[in-house]
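retry 2 of 3: previous attempt timed out while embedding flavin mononucleotide. Reduced batch size to 1 and resubmitted. Inputs unchanged:
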Amino acid sequence: MDVLDAIKNRRSIRNFSDREIEKDCIEQIIESAQWAPSACNKQAWKFIAITDNKIKESLVQNAGSLNLVKSAPLTVAVVYHKKINEYHDANIQSASAAIQNMLLYAHSIGLGSLWVCSYGDEKKISEILKIHKDYRMIAFVCIGYPNVKRKITPKRKKIDHIVSYNQFNFGDVYPSSYNLNNWSFKQAVTYWSDTIYASSPTPDVYMKGIVGKEVLQQVDTVVPILSENDKVLEVFPYAGSFGLNILKKKKLDYSILETDDKILKFFNERKEALNIKQDIKIKLVTDDLKIPMEDSFYDKVLLFERLNFFPEHEKIINEIFRVMKPNGTLILSFKNKFSFTYISHLLSGKGELSPYELLSIRYIKKLLKRFKITKMDGYSLTPITIAKKTFFKTFGRVIMIYCVKKQNE
Ligand SMILES: Cc1cc2nc3c(=O)[nH]c(=O)nc-3n(C[C@H](O)[C@H](O)[C@H](O)COP(=O)(O)O)c2cc1C
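retry 2 succeeded.
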């Protein structure tokens, strides 16, 4: 296999068949790893080939490792000596080179693999695998025979976006800030568009755990309000978790407004994966944030949790207002600033950099000044009461507001 072909055609595989991998093969994979370059040729890596189901189960149950660790016939834990080649993180760089070798070699012999750094709790993993205290966990590599109908190829950026000559010369640098006001709309679109393909458009993507429950809770309250005669517009459906679940339950005259083609492609692939046959009309927002639609057209507009991810709220809401019929209903939800999520943000940090902000009810109400608010719900007061409508609505993790376009505005 040509090297460039192997590099380009290797894909992250997240579904494996039960077929086991022979010991000889495991050792060849590890051998491919050890021919990677390492800082000062120290080769201070160790590879723990995990094939025992009990250990895998324990990693998932006790260390919070990905389920895939269990379903892959082989999971290799890659560890590296903490104190050797610490400078410039050369130990991580060496281990990473070894991992890439494994992925490519596995691919060249017909195996699929996944590089996993959301491996779970490092301390628990170290206990379960009895990792020496001087070694640090780098990643799991899940390997097995692929069990996928077709491989999804996450797009790569254009070469002129990632290379400049002699000096750092790029126009599209993301701001180092969570604050939505520091991001342009286009930057946020590019950021989220690049992010979406980290998952594959399987029916369950973005539907797991607390997030999935909150999605279904919102879907269940919205579905009875939508009637077959309504012209419905969902704004920025992203992965389609809300809209596609709505359309699974009800036939509707449904349009979506999306930000770019790449996200739209993901949405369509997921629609296909869910076997949803309904026709969905598609609009793309223009560069100056206009909805390509006439005034007073839609009966119902849905905007689920998107304001947390994109700036330019006023422009978005004004456009929604314009395309809505007088007395039309906007149903808008958002992740609430004054909820346990905010407290956990304060305690544990906000996580990876992204354009993402929790919003307050006061702020949203101000934004909706041209609408009459008719109802407000709060979901998930605490992690324990997940997805229950709560009495203390205003402290819910997700707030959902129903409002009507005022006629005389
Ligand atoms: C350092 C690193 C960590 C990763 N961790 C995860 C992970 O925890 N879970 C996962 O599903 N994919 C993980 N991936 C896989 C990426 O999502 C994947 O490589 C990327 O979306 C591009 O897809 P491709 O590998 O098919 O080209 C990781 C990749 C790298 C390089």
